[in-house]
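Task: complex structure prediction.
Instruction: return structure tokens for all chains below.
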Amino acid sequence: MGVRITGIGVVSAIGLTVEENLRALKEGKSGIGKMAFLKENSELLVGEAKISNEDLKAALHIGTRYVSRTSLLGLLAAREAWGKNRLSKSLRTGIISATSVGGMDRSEHFYKDYLAKENPDFRLLKTHDSGSTTERIAAELGIKDYVNTLSTACSSGANAIMLGARLLLQNRLDRVLVGGSDALASFTIDGFRSLMIYDDQWCRPFDESRSGLNLGEGAGFLLLENEKSIEFSGNATIAYLSGWANAADAYHQTASSPEGKGATLAIAQALKKSGLNTSGITYVNAHGTGTKNNDLSESVALKNVFADQVPAFSSTKAFTGHTLAAAGAIEAVFSVLSIQNNLIYPNLNFKNSIEETGLEPVTTLQTDREVRAVLSNSFGFGGNNSSLVFSDRA
Amino acid sequence: MEKSVYYISAASTISHQPTFGNAGFSKSICALEADSSLITPDFKAFIDAGLLRRMSKILRMSVACAKDCLAQSHLEQPDAIIVGTGLGCLHDTEKFLNTSLTVEGLLPPTSFIQSTHNTMAGQISLSISNHGYNMTHTQNTLSFEHALLDAMMLLDDGEASILVGAADEYIEILTEIAGELNVRPARQLTSAASFFIVSNAPESDTVACVKDCWPIAFPESKTSAINDFLQRNELNAAEVDYVLFASLLPEQSGELVDLFTSAGMSGERCIDYLAFSGIYPTAAAFGMHYAADLMRTDRSIRNILIVNALRSENLGLTLIQSVEA
Amino acid sequence: MDTLKEDLKKQIIEQLNLEDITPADIADDSLLFNDEGLGLDSIDALELIVLLEKYHGIQVTKPEEGKEAFKSVNTMAEYIRKRKS
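Output:
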């Protein structure tokens, strides 16, 4: 029982549109580099969306300064996914976005002035709460039948997609824009640095020498529609969301369990929901952050589920950086593109397998396989594990 | 789908009222005084010392209420844990923001780890070793309603028992922000947590159920939204025994009360629950516990409507019904 | 009495917010990361790295480096003395 995906939109370090992202993925071109927009003169490697707030506002025709970068990035991707669709009183339309920082980029700005007692602008805080970032996007698009925000750290985006699918299947909505958005913030950069899992070099997912992640930013959105909505819109279906699951690892506040308990549950239950066998998965878009802990735990989980038949897999985080709450949504768009274009993306910066598991990701672009189904993993703090299955048929 | 019944088989709240471990509290609650403070249990009775030492108030309250709910319902593991929070773990967020802007060199990571909105749901799963669906909704003042709706959807899909709740945390800067933004709330800003077990089957002592819940993002008219909601639940305003409402400003309260008194309801049966809970984004969860407790103490009550207009742009409607003995 | 060790115990209690523990409860050789000892975890290990920088001016760049050093108060004191000599 798959749910139709009829629109996609994405903004990340490797492009401001679906087309630009696809081109970079094909060319194996990473978007990670020295910081240019958040702060000047930083040596830190980040996956910034290559556009300033001013240019974003101009492109989106937004005049106010009281809007967070998270909302702007989200709106850019949401508009692309929404496309030329029209609102209709006969269709119940919703939006679910995911974010972990919300308007933290504006709050930081405020709090700095506040601490220095330099005439802080309290109105900036109206954009702080995560819900307001989604409301902003909803208001710009005129969507109002269901407006909600999920925040489960790095699995948030996948969870928004899952919730949207459930709302359609329970006939509570006819169509829903689902995805996530997170802007880069000093708060999260400092946070991951305090955990000593921020790599000063390029992140190396699934490599034995990996030593942490590079943060990125961006947004991804998908439009999900039921039959009634399709009748109205006439939209073509580009892929199906056919399986999903969320499970708790319940092991530690930040670390994943060595036996990959939560991840294994999420993958296995998502597969079960999709009705596919393990052999039905052509490609796994892994969470693969590049931290010692995640990549090992995820590798173990893949082996738990797929045994010695682990499908072609890669992490695209060496392209985009880890975009936190947006990651699950951006990678969902990549998964749909994988099916649409029969592409398996390379895992950049990989040299040697992780000793304990010996798994080798795909390292060059594969174009000769028919991609029928993609498993996409998103695992977050607090042991929040989500897996989605996308397929070329219902 | 519409016929599902969502039984409230446990409820636990930490608030300014003697709500915790005290069924029947609704008989003895009174409006907050200016110097009122939270009434908290001994957290060590509920939380392992190793976990407790790092926990901010919002985490302590959430885990204690969650564990209390499980004990009440004699349930070992819920099928899912769902939390709504408007502003999340503000204490740790502000602490880390402050450190990151003022400290040169290495930063202590604990407050960053605990700044994410899903820390409550994560800590609950960790405390009870739960591997089920674990979700956190954060849609400002409608966060609890969205969490509750998610729980109802899981029950519709065949799950049996869901732990669902809400928590928010006050930090001092909120008062300053409210003042600077010219918001003059009628009640004090505060913290609280409420958790529930909602189930597909009643326990022997279950008295109330959630009939319906509808979070509305941008209602064109609150009156027509309320009328539509009652209509889809086959009720007219006169059949509602109590309206528990919330609004930030006194003049908005007047409008809501007028709506029901003009339909023939006694003004005394329109209760501003913020007078008891204080103001925080997910106070509707206090409203739900209050409604269920009123039904426990007075079995003649059939329908209680919770009208959450705490933020005037949004509207949360929840209908609580009594369960026939 | 070794004042470095006594200072360390106070600093550990403060940095890790060990509410009900006094310096007297921590033996010089008790294993900090063992459940029989203080039962600390990986987050605490990071906090101890912060402690070393904050109170002793010692920088640890890789968390693995701390592992041996943080076994007990004895090993911590030894590590500090070695790094400072």
